[in-house]
Amino acid sequence: MELVIVLIIIGISSALVVPRFIGGMGGVDLKTASGKVAASLRYARSQAVSQKVPYAAVFDLEKNRLTIMSQRTGETEGGDETSEEGSASAGEKGYDLPDGIVFMKVASEEEPVDEDAEGFTIGFYPSGGSDGGAVAVTNQRGGRYIVVVDVITGSVRLTRGEDE
Questions:
Q1: pTM: predicted TM-score of the whole model, two decimal places
Q2: Which of 102, 110, 112, 140 is deepest in the core (most CB within 10 A)?
Q3: Is the confidence at residue 22, as pLDDT, over 90?
């Protein structure tokens, strides 16, 4: 009888603890994805400055994909030619968000969010500056990180939750 009671207590406690542990893992995916997006944007800025060529970070909101590419005439980051339709070849750097995590463009005073837009671009220039902008990386549970790119310095900042 004591053994049955102990097994019931263990079963009830594991039923309460395991979902909380698994729910915490979703936050890890969000934090990792946000860090990778910020690192990709910093990479685009550093490549633009070091190669003295403009770079673009293209956010595809439909596919939840970030693509970093050189803005040389018809070339991607790796120096490969693009096709006539303008689609990029294998030389570009891309990052797909994990399942359950999505991009959302953050509105600014100068540029409100276009609900119908499929994506947007942030440009980085050889001077170190950028077009500026912000993107939110969110998950299904309401977690949110905001990646902000400064217009003047091109620096990338990552914050948790709401921003300005």
A1: 0.70
A2: 102
A3: no
